[in-house]
Design goal:
By secondary structure, the chain is an alpha+beta fold. The protein has helices at residues 3-24, 28-32, 53-64, and strands spanning 35-42, 50-51, 69-82, 85-99, 105-121, 124-138. The chain contains three helices and six strands.
């Protein structure tokens, strides 16, 4: 690996981490800045939409506003760089905390993969496409 590739990998890892923080804070302006203008996000693996960034921010904001808390974590990113384009596969674990009618909290756990296409722009690396791939769920609330 040369220093340019090391730098690109570090910038991409920072971008992927920023995504987790933007959703959990939530900060939808920061969220929007992580993507190209024509980005496509496909969250259909967990029943979400396939849409652009603005629509996804609206979808996610409607979910997190009803939660007592959330935490997105990522690990084991596998990145393939080819000049100013990169393909990534990153493990993610998402914990969602909901308040129950009896005053208790319930934590649901989701395991997934983010399959990303990333583009190096004049403003830095951005996500051009993000697809969620289902891995597992644990402790879903009873209906």
């Amino acid at each position: 690996m040369n220093t340019y590739e090391i730098s690109d990998r570090m910038e991409i890892q920072h971008l992927l981490t920023q995504y987790c923080h933007a959703v959990d804070e939530p900060n939808w302006d920061s969220f929007g800045n992580l993507f190209t203008e024509d980005a496509v996000l496909d969250f259909s693996a967990f029943g979400g939409p396939r849409c652009g960034v603005t629509e996804m921010a609206t979808f996610l904001s409607n979910i997190v506003k009803d939660l007592a808390g959330s935490q997105h974590t990522i690990s084991t990113s596998l990145l393939h760089l080819n000049g100013e384009i990169a393909e990534g596969r990153t493990a993610a674990q998402v914990m969602l905390v909901s308040s129950q009618n009896d005053g208790t909290s319930h934590v649901s756990f989701f395991g997934l993969w983010y399959l990303d296409t990333l583009i190096k722009t004049p403003g830095g690396w951005r996500i051009k496409e993000r697809v969620q791939k289902y891995a597992w769920v644990h402790n879903m609330p009873s209906t």
